[in-house]
Design a protein that fits this description.
This protein has a 3-stranded antiparallel beta sheet. The longest helix has about 35 residues. About 65% of the residues lie in helices and about 15% in strands. The chain is elongated, with a radius of gyration of 27 Å. It has about 190 residues and is of the alpha+beta class. It has 2 domains: about 30 residues; about 150 residues, no CATH class. The protein starts with a helix and ends with a helix. The chain is built from 6 helices and 3 strands. α2 packs across α6 and α3 packs across α4.
């Protein structure tokens, strides 16, 4: 009888152990992977088109306000990077298509100018989407999408150039805008528009 009781007890311990291992594995897998979202909130509103530079971001924090602030900061940083990257492509093409005495000097000055414009346009950013959620662990998640118009960026570049006599001599506004619009079209196509 004692032998039977020992075997039954051992079987029960093994079964409980296997069950607890199994449920721990599930919890670990779920907490590491979580639910995969096909479309993140605000993601569609963060896609650039021909008229707007756009970006979206998400952030998590134990404080709701902080989650929202971090998401907004991340989206603005992405927007500045996108504007800088786009205007660099425009500048490279513009310099290649025009005749300059010192093309590298013009390009360097122009890139610095466009970087300044990208940083300044952040003051014109419009929040187009803002959502929040609470996770199972009690943390908050903030989602945001922002945009700035192509016209704000172009006007910023023109205003900066008008204050720099050396750049103004080599600046053909119509040609620059033509190339800029072509790059915006490419950006829109890459975003699915």
């Amino acid at each position: 009888m004692t032998k039977f009781f020992g075997v039954a007890l051992l079987t029960m311990v093994v079964m409980v152990g296997m069950h607890s291992c199994k449920s721990k594995e599930k919890v670990t897998t779920n907490s590491e992977v979580g639910t995969i979202l096909e479309n993140m909130p605000c993601e569609d509103e963060g896609r650039s088109d021909k008229k707007f530079f756009r970006a979206s971001a998400m952030a998590t924090s134990s404080d709701l306000s902080l989650a929202e602030e971090k998401a907004l900061l991340n989206a603005k940083q992405r927007l500045v990077t996108l504007i800088s990257s786009n205007t660099k492509s425009v500048t490279d093409r513009y310099v290649n298509e025009r005749e300059f005495g010192d093309a590298s000097e013009f390009e360097a000055k122009f890139e610095n100018l466009t970087r300044e414009v990208a940083d300044e346009t952040i003051s014109n950013v419009v929040v187009t989407c803002q959502k929040k959620s609470v996770l199972a662990n009690g943390k908050y998640r903030g989602f945001v999408a922002v945009e700035v118009s192509k016209e704000d960026v172009l006007n910023g570049i023109s205003n900066k150039i008008s204050k720099n006599q050396k750049l103004q001599v080599d600046y053909d506004k119509a040609k620059f805008e033509e190339i800029f619009n072509q790059e915006m079209q490419k950006l829109a196509e890459e975003s699915g528009y």
